[in-house]
Amino acid sequence: MDSSIDEKTKRRRGIVDYLPFLPALIAVLLRVLHRTCKFTIIGEENLREAQKTGGPVIAAFWHSSFPGVLYYFRDRGYLTITSRSRDGELAARLVNRLGYTAFRGSPGKGGAIALKQLISAFRGSAGGGFPADGSQGPVQVVQKGLIVLGMYTGSPIFAVSVAADRCWRFRSWDRTILAKPFANVVLAVSPSIRVERGASSEMVENYRVRVQEYLDVVTDLAARAAGGRFA
Q1: pTM
Q2: How confident is the model at residue 88 (pLDDT cuts 50, 70, 90)?
């Protein structure tokens, strides 16, 4: 085999190709770490109200809150979406280990296909949780795909954010946070929004702005309750 072709193939391999045990290990560590933390819920009545219909719900959160939100809503059969990048396979296998079903997609890389699959899969499901600012940003800017999902599924969308009094922050584009052991973790939930079926593009933008406002509010609430540590 041509050595140059072989080298390109190696470069295309993701981290789980070399460390297949890594998703299971990270899932266990996330469970153990968060079990040492004390969780406080702000707006728990909003979550109960969203779930009152018995149908699927949509949790919208910033990408930086992924670890805490992922843990809190674990093992409920929720759906989520991960990047189609090589290292997106790591995230997909990780969320599967935490009781989620992962769909692969990102802007320009199968996002429309993944959205159609999600809309179909929502029927009869518990719902799902999705980073509102997508997998590639811009950071803390709600993307319209989430609104379109709410429109076609009829599911209520609620915003959720996480903060902790002690945490690590990764040097990633989204500055992901991870609570430290025995931290006080605050999870804030907004009232839900239902997107009107057949909404025009202008209406979709209005709903997007409302979800953006709700996320900004719950992010501030969680941070203040946690002692000013932003999530």
Answers
A1: 0.86
A2: confident
